[in-house]
Design brief:
Structural class of chain B: mainly alpha
Number of strands of chain A: 4
CATH topology of chain A: Glutaredoxin
Radius of gyration of chain A: 13 Å
Number of helices of chain B: 7
Largest sheet of chain A: 4 strands, mixed
Oligomer: heterodimer
Radius of gyration of chain B: 25 Å
Order of helices and strands of chain A: EHEHEEH
CATH superfamily of chain A: Glutaredoxin
CATH architecture of chain A: 3-Layer(aba) Sandwich
Helix content of chain A: 40-55%
Number of domains of chain A: 1
Order of helices and strands of chain B: HHEEHHHHH
Chain lengths: 91, 163
C-alpha cells in the first residue's frame, strides 16, 4: 500500500519552500510507487487541514495522521518513512 | 487638557476611557501588561496620554474582535515593532488563529450534536431523575442510547477542546 505524505503550508513562505523541496526529494528518492507526495495549501483546504488537526503550518502528515507538527529534517522523514515501509513488509 | 507647544492633545485616563470606550481599569491593566506604553505624567502625577494611546486601544479592540487573545495581540505588536518583520509573519499568525477557531467550532458542533442526541433520547416529563437518560449518559460517558444509537461523546468533544 502506498504511503501518503502531505505537507500543509501557506503560500508565500520562502523558508518553508526550501525545506519542502528537501523533503520532496526524500520521497522521490524512495519512489512514487511506495510513497505519494501532496502539497496542501491550508487556505484552500481549510476543512481538511482542520480534520487532520493542523494548527500551525507548515507541518507534515503521513497517511492522514499529523506526525510532524513542525517540518522535520529530511533525515527524520526518511527514517519515519523507512520504519513504516518495514512495518508494511513485515505484515 | 493640552500640552503647551506640541499642539497634540494630552488626555487624562478618564478622557481616554471616554474617547476610546475602554474602561479606566482596563486601560490600567493594558499598561500593566505592557500592551500600552506608560504615559508621561503631569506635575501632579496624573497620567497624560496622546492620540497614540487611542490608536493602540482601537488596535487591541479590533484584534480582539478577530478572536485574538491578549498574548497574541502582544505578539502582533512585537511583530509591528520589529524592523526585520514582514507581512508574512502577521499573516502566519492570522492563519494559525483561524485554524484554532475552526477547531473550536468543530468541537462546539460535536458538543451540540451530542447534546441534541441526549435531548432526543429524553422525553422529559415527570419521571424521577434517577431514570433520566441525560444524567445516565453523563455518568457513563459514551454508551448506547435506549434505541441502540451510539452517542457522539461529550467527553470526546471536551477532550478535543482541551487537547
Amino acid at each position: 500500500m502506498t504511503i501518503t505524505v502531505e505537507v500543509f503550508a501557506v503560500p508565500g513562505c520562502s523558508q518553508c519552500a526550501q525545506t519542502r523541496d528537501a523533503l520532496r526529494q526524500v520521497v522521490e528518492a524512495i519512489g512514487h510507487d511506495k510513497v505519494a507526495w501532496r502539497e496542501i495549501n491550508v487556505l484552500e483546504a481549510l476543512d481538511y487541514a482542520v480534520e487532520v488537526g493542523v494548527l500551525s503550518p507548515p507541518c507534515l502528515a503521513i497517511d492522514g495522521e499529523l506526525v510532524f507538527p513542525t517540518l522535520p529534517t529530511p533525515e527524520t522523514l526518511r527514517h519515519a518513512l523507512n520504519q513504516r515501509l518495514t512495518r508494511q513488509e513485515d505484515r | 487638557m493640552h500640552s503647551p507647544g506640541t499642539g497634540s492633545e494630552r488626555l487624562t485616563i478618564g478622557r481616554l476611557a471616554a474617547k476610546s470606550g475602554v474602561s479606566v481599569d482596563t486601560i490600567r491593566y493594558y499598561e500593566k501588561e505592557a500592551l500600552l506604553q506608560p504615559p508621561k505624567r503631569s506635575a501632579g502625577g496624573f497620567r497624560l496620554y496622546t492620540d497614540e494611546a487611542i490608536r493602540r486601544l482601537r488596535f487591541i479592540r479590533h484584534a480582539q474582535q478577530c478572536g485574538m487573545a491578549l498574548s497574541e495581540i502582544r505578539t502582533l505588536l512585537d511583530i509591528k515593532r520589529q524592523d526585520d518583520a514582514c507581512c508574512h509573519d502577521v499573516r502566519s499568525l492570522a492563519v494559525r488563529k483561524r485554524l484554532h477557531i475552526e477547531q473550536q467550532i468543530r468541537s462546539l458542533q460535536a458538543m451540540s450534536q451530542a447534546l441534541g442526541q441526549l435531548i432526543e433520547d429524553c422525553s422529559g416529563g415527570q419521571a424521577p431523575v434517577d431514570e433520566c437518560p441525560i444524567l445516565a449518559a453523563m455518568e457513563s460517558g459514551i454508551e448506547s442510547g435506549k434505541n441502540g444509537r451510539k452517542k457522539a461523546g461529550i467527553l470526546e468533544a471536551d477532550d478535543d477542546d482541551h487537547g
